[in-house]
Each structure stands twice: as structure tokens, then as C-alpha cells.
Design goal:
By secondary structure, the protein is of the alpha+beta class. It is built from 16 helices and nine strands. Helix 1 crosses helix 3, helix 4 runs antiparallel to helix 6 and helix 7 packs parallel to helix 11. The radius of gyration is 29 Å and the shape is globular.
Length: about 425
Amino acid sequence: MSNLSLVLHYVNDLVSLPVGICVTDVYKGKPSAVLGLLRTIRDRLDIEYALSKMPKHERSAFLIKELITTEQVYVSKLFLVIETLMTPARLSRPAMLSRGEVDAVFGNWKDIAFKHEAFLDCLRGAFPFKKIATYLDTSILFKLLDGLMSWIKPVYTTYILNYDASIPFCASLRKSNQRFDSLVARFEEAQAMDLYSFLILPVQRVPRYLLLVRELTRCTPQAEQLRACVAKFDAILHTVNERKRALDNTRKVRAIEASIHGTFASIGNQCYLREGFLGILGADEEDETRSYFFLFSDRLMLTRHIPNVSPCKDFKFDAVFWLKDADEVTDEMENEEAGAEDEGEGEDATESAASTSTTAPSDVAAVAVTDYLPDAAAGSEPPEHETEGDERACMFGIIMKDFVLGLVAESEQSKLEWMEDLSSAIQKLKGK
């Protein structure tokens, strides 16, 4: 439902008209809502086709008009949220929401609204709408966009970093605060769009500028300055996205740490890479718990999946394998097939593996080494089911300094993904 809401709002933004399509009605297949959506898409396609047939000077004038129109629609929606939600929530007696709760849901929404209102006034002053017929000089627009970019990065970074947390907070607030829920419900009914479709507006706006300016560079002879704007918008988006990715990673890491019972070294600011169930070759078959691994940029953490092992914790810490001590990732299936091609060397390899002395790393000292070694290396016969073709194709290993960690993925595709991520993390630590 939320994804459908984003698509509808994006289409609505492209056409620059309030189409009044209810997300729920489209989701349920209501004919009038579906027809409205189709008309909206058709209108946009008609505009795109007409634009492609215009002479360059007419196209540039059209794009200037579209910039002003979409900015006007954007500003009107920003102030609509302020006037119908934020202000009533704070000024009602008693107040529906505290100042902190308003900030948690809407972030720096007012700051964005007032800055864009000023930018819209500048656009209107520079380009009187009814007088835009042809436009070839980009210097005025460049100055306006340059002024916009002077504040857009810090303002939007602040909003976007708050955005992901605001969605679940708003949902929980509506469940616990009946007055606020009723206010939002009336707002959504009046606008035929849910609140989340409005909260996503600032997230979508900067890419929208980038698309418009990039299109303008294709139809104006003096495009050098606008190309500089495109580069700046690209840099802004990159910075904002990097900050958001870093915040998302921190939240993910903290959530993982909170879900694990036991004592282990803090993950800190390491990057989360992947997680999932992996079998361990040579593990105790009587242990009914399943081994669940978390891969970070510096370690592979082994836990046992035990739902509700303690309040709000579904995993029990078992061991950690530091990637700085890993040499490489090996495909167990490829190794065994290669050994089978040379029968004479196969027996020698088996005897050598059985006699090799292995030592567990210090942080796994409390766990038997054989729990983490392939059966050949542990000196015991593998269980019968491990010789089956499907499982053998899912085997791979991590060659550590003193032993080999043999693993079994849930599928061949999963195996390849684990091997790729592990190899990449190991190589980065080695500086290669």
C-alpha cells in the first residue's frame, strides 16, 4: 500500500495537478479510481510527446513554466500540512501533540516550507508566468538555482535523516492518540491521499529539480551554467544519500545488537552486509537450534536462533570470526570436484586434512573447534546426508589462519551471494 501511494504521488507530481486519486480505492480496484490513474498517466505521456516535438526555444519556455507550476503545487502542499495538521495539533487545548512529537513526525517541515515560498516568489518575479513565450538566456535561472543550492543540502539532509524514523513513530502515535488519529483521518479523507504521501514530498523534490534542469540543458544554447547546476544537484543528492545510508546502517546495527542475547564486542560503526541461516559442517546434530550468521565489514558473527531467548531477543551469541584473520573464501564443491579428477592425489589430500593440526581463535575458545570445521578436517566421517548432491553444491568455506570454517547455504544462489560479500569484505580489509 505504501509503495502504491508513492507511485501515485509521483505521477501526481509529474502532471502538476491534484488528481484526487485515493490510494485505497486504487488498491481495491475501484473503477473510477483506476480510470483516474490511467487518465493521469495518459496526460503525462501526451505532455512528454508534445515536448519532444517542440522547437528548442519553446521547450525551454515550457520547462520554465513547469518548474514554476510544480514549485507552486509543492509549496501549497507544504503549507496545507502546516495549516491543517501541524498548527491544530499544537494549538488545540489541550494540545494533541507536544513540540517534540510534532518534530518527530514532521521534522523541519516549516523551515522547508518558508524557504521554498521565498524561492517561488523569486521565480515569479524573474519570470512573469503569462509573459513566458520563449526563453534562451539561462543566466537568471542559474542565479536562482545557485541560491537554492546554497541552503538545500543542510535543510534536506536534516529532513531526510528524520524521515525513516518519522513513519513508524507516526503510526504508533496514531494508535495511542485518538485525537491526532481523527485529525489525520479527516485530512486524508479531504485530500484523498494518506499522510505518508505528503511526508515523502521533500524526499522526492530534489531529484525533481535535477530532472528539470537536466532537461533544460538539452534545449538551451547557453547550457554551461545549467550543467554546473546539474553537477551540484548530483553532488547534493550523493551527500544526502550517503548520510542517509550511514544513518540506516547505524539503526540496523543497533537493532541487531539489541536482538542478541549474550556478551560480545560492540559492532560500533561497522557496515552491515548481510545475514541469514547457514549450516556448519561438523556441527553437533543433536543441537536443535539453527545457526544464524550476521556479516559486517570486519567480522562474521555466529548466533543461535532461539526465539524469545530473553525479552525482545531472538538470537543467542555464540562466536565471532574476525575477517582480518581470514585468507580467502573457497568453493567447497569446486575443491571436491577438482580432487575427484585426480584419484591418486585424492587419498593423500584426505590423509593430510585428517592429520592437520587446527587451532580455534581466542574468541571462540569456549566452543569446540570441531563444531566449526568440515568433517574431513576434524578427523571424523561426515553425516550421510551431507554427501547428497544438493547440499554439497551449497557448501563453501572460509580459510582462516589456523582452521577452515565450513558452511552450507540454503541454496546455491544464497551460497554465491555469501561468498561474494565475504570475499569483498576480506579484500577491503586487506586493502586490495
